[in-house]
């Protein structure tokens, strides 16, 4: 007989899909429902979840699409037999940086939701603008230049807000909105992030921003724990800064705060109980670090379409090349993040070139790529005296470092520091299988090395464990090379939850928000219930003496190579 433990829902509203995942108090997944925007929606001209205006480099999503998705996911959970009356908490994970513009009628429409009708039928009038700018948007170069300048330079902006200005960050997006749609901006009553939009739907009124996700706006002064007045002034454009403050609202510090009970609509339509509580939804990356009791010395690498590298750390060390956010649950901790546009797609290019070269597409499409990568020695050095082969593989413009699309190949001699841009000695595409994995992992090691410490026993600074999530985490060749480069005193692990890390993290956040004892941290509560043997699998060794140190030399060459390429591009 099914247990009658309380249940918790985590919603993941990502670029391409909405998921609803239900766990019990023991953290066991009981139900999952998924709505794929391209495959399952009706009435929207979207591709990969978004619409594009190439001329202005705009990427955006229709908000009504998300309403249709929420109606369908709730219906699907009902059809699967979920007893909604057992659900005690709801939280969520939203794609970061996207903003939702609410109309003057929003609060009334949310409050008066009629259980006989769908959200999609009732809420379109709640938005002053039907679209939400997406994280892939790059229309805000002018605004980013202004943001970077407002406190003196990108370093100062990163120091204050955790990041230099980025096209996708919500502050530059809002400033552009005030210019492109001034009348609509004036008619906008509130602005939500995708995360607080999810919470708003369930509360029946506009929810505040989440303490972690607010750091993806370039507006929040992380150390002061308040909006930065000078930046807000810039962001309000020609409009009143006090009015912008009202549109943004206050930001509660507690990530486990009880925002309120689920709205009557959900009680009548689905059978939620009156004591089901809404806990702040956060960004998808902050939610991902909540998918396990991550320790400050652990690292997570998400190998999806893009690559993200996440760590939880007590050290706030902002830099224009990286991101810091408040930790979503634990005051005094921060989330460190690197976000690359070139991840899975770039690896697929090399994989396809290798398959084409062999005139063979095996049923397991990664088989030749993996075999080639593993039979190539580190940096293609067959002998210790051979130069190291290093490259950058960016089929799409990259964020880290900020470079246009391109491919660059070098050789590097660590003994004398000789660095030459050349394809001499490179066997293409064979050498590229290992080189592309090395390139991606060396970039992570370069940018995270200031945050790692020695795990003891005389070992060099490195993560305690490296956890892999996302589509690429199925690949053991990538895991092996990741361990050789990043280390990991205890090894490289895969989270056994397929591609559901952020929905799971959101559901765990709801468990913690409702069931925590006085002062009990997320790590403590989830740590006590976490079943290591069921939830993670060790898939590769981490630190290996000799090879880790060899890659330490390669990091130096890699850093010099990036610098050389950036200088070259600046001269173009
Ligand atoms: N066996 C595999 N080896 C390497 N990469 C893989 C493998 N299986 C899937 N992938 C990669 O996973 C990526 C998709 O990951 P996923 O986490 O689902 O993406 P998203 O970020 O869109 O949610 C694709 O780019 C694909 O190349
Ligand atoms: O922009 C960022 C992080 O800064 C992205 O990681 C988005 O948060 C993307 O979410 P997905 O929908 O791809 O998961």
Key words describing this protein structure:
xylose metabolism, ATPase_NBD, FGGY_N, binds adenosine-5'-diphosphate, Nucleotidyltransferase, domain 5, 7-stranded mixed sheet, carbohydrate metabolism, alpha+beta, ATP-binding, 24 strands, binds 5-O-phosphono-D-xylulose
What does this structure look like?
The longest helix has 25 residues. The protein folds into two domains: 279 residues, 2-Layer Sandwich (Nucleotidyltransferase, domain 5); 122 residues, no CATH class. The strands form six sheets. Strands 1, 2, 3, 6, 12, 13 and 14 form a seven-stranded mixed β-sheet that branches. It has a seven-stranded mixed β-sheet with strand order 17-18-16-15-22-23-24. A three-stranded antiparallel β-sheet has the order 4-5-8. It is 36% helix and 20% strand. The protein has 572 residues and is of the alpha+beta class. 5-O-phosphono-D-xylulose binds next to helix 13.
List the helices and strands and how they pair.
Elements: E1 7-13, E2 17-24, E3 29-36, H1 37-40, E4 51-53, E5 58-62, H2 63-79, E6 87-94, E7 99-102, H3 106-111, H4 119-122, E8 131-133, H5 141-150, H6 154-161, H7 170-180, H8 182-187, E9 190-193, H9 194-203, E10 220-221, E11 226-227, H10 229-235, H11 241-248, E12 260-261, H12 264-270, E13 277-278, E14 282-283, H13 284-288, E15 299-303, E16 307-313, E17 323-326, E18 334-340, H14 344-357, H15 367-375, E19 388-394, E20 406-413, E21 418-421, H16 430-448, E22 465-469, H17 476-486, E23 491-495, H18 501-515, H19 522-529, H20 532-535, E24 536-540, H21 547-571
Parallel strand pairs: 1-6, 6-13, 6-14, 15-22, 22-23
Antiparallel strand pairs: 1-2, 2-3, 4-5, 5-8, 7-9, 10-11, 12-13, 15-16, 16-18, 17-18, 19-20, 20-21, 23-24
The structure holds adenosine-5'-diphosphate and 5-O-phosphono-D-xylulose.
5-O-phosphono-D-xylulose binds at residues 14-15, 95-97, 135, 168, 284-285, 308, 339.
Keywords: ATP-binding, Carbohydrate metabolism, Cytoplasm, Kinase, Nucleotide-binding, Transferase, Xylose metabolism
EC number: 2.7.1.17
Domain Carbohydrate kinase FGGY C-terminal: 299-512
């Amino acid at each position: 007989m099914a247990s009658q433990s309380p249940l918790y829902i985590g919603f993941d509203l990502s670029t391409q899909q909405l998921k609803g995942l239900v766990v019990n108090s023991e953290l066991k997944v009981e139900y999952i429902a998924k709505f794929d925007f391209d495959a399952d929606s009706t009435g929207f001209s979207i591709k990969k979840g978004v619409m594009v205006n190439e001329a202005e480099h705009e990427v955006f999503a229709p908000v009504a699409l998300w309403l249709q998705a929420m109606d369908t996911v709730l219906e699907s959970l009902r059809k699967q037999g979920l007893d909604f009356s057992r659900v005690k908490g709801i939280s969520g994970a939203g794609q970061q940086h996207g903003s939702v513009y609410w109309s003057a009628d929003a609060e009334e429409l949310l409050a008066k939701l009629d259980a006989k009708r769908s959200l999609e039928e009732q809420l379109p009038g709640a938005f002053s603008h039907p679209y939400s700018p997406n994280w892939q948007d790059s229309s805000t170069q002018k605004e980013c230049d202004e943001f970077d300048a407002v406190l003196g330079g990108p370093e100062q902006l990163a120091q204050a807000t955790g990041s230099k200005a980025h096209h996708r960050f919500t502050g530059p997006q809002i400033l552009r909105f005030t210019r492109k749609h001034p009348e609509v901006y004036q008619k906008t009553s509130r602005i939500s992030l995708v995360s607080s939009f999810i919470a708003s739907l369930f509360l029946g009124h506009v929810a505040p921003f989440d303490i972690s996700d607010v750091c993806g706006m370039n507006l929040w002064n992380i150390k002061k724990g308040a909006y930065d007045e000078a930046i807000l002034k810039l962001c309000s454009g020609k409009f009143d800064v006090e009015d912008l403050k009202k549109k943004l609202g206050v930001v509660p510090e507690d990530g486990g705060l009880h925002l309120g009970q689920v709205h009557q609509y959900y009680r009548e339509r689905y059978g939620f109980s009156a004591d089901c509580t809404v806990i702040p939804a956060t960004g998808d990356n902050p939610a991902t670090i909540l998918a396990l009791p991550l320790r400050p010395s652990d690292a997570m690498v998400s190998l999806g379409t893009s690559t993200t590298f996440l760590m939880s750390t007590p050290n706030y060390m902002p830099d224009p090349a990286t991101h810091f956010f408040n930790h979503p649950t634990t005051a005094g901790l921060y989330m460190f993040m690197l976000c690359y546009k070139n991840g899975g797609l770039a690896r697929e290019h090399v994989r396809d070139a290798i398959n084409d070269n062999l005139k063979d597409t095996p049923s397991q499409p990664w088989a030749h790529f993996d075999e080639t990568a593993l039979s190539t020695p580190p940096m293609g050095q067959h002998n210790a005296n051979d130069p190291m082969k290093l490259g950058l593989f960016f089929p799409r413009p990259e964020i880290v470092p900020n470079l246009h699309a391109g491919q660059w190949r070098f050789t590097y001699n660590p003994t004398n520091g000789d660095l030459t841009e050349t394809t001499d000695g490179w066997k293409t595409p064979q050498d590229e299988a290992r080189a592309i994995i090395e390139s991606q992992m060396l970039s992570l090691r370069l940018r995270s090395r200031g945050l790692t410490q020695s795990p003891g026993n005389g070992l060099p600074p490195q993560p305690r464990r490296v956890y892999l999530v996302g589509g690429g985490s199925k690949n053991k060749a990538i895991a092996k090379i990741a361990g050789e480069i990043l280390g990991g005193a205890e090894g490289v692990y895969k989270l056994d939850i397929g591609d559901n890390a952020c929905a799971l993290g959101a559901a765990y956040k709801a468990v913690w928000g409702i069931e925590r004892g006085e002062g009990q941290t997320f790590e403590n509560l989830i740590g006590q219930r976490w079943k290591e043997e069921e939830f993670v699998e060790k898939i590769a060794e981490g630190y290996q003496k000799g090879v880790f140190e060899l890659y330490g030399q390669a990091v130096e060459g890699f850093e010099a190579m990036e610098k050389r390429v950036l200088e070259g591009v600046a001269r173009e």
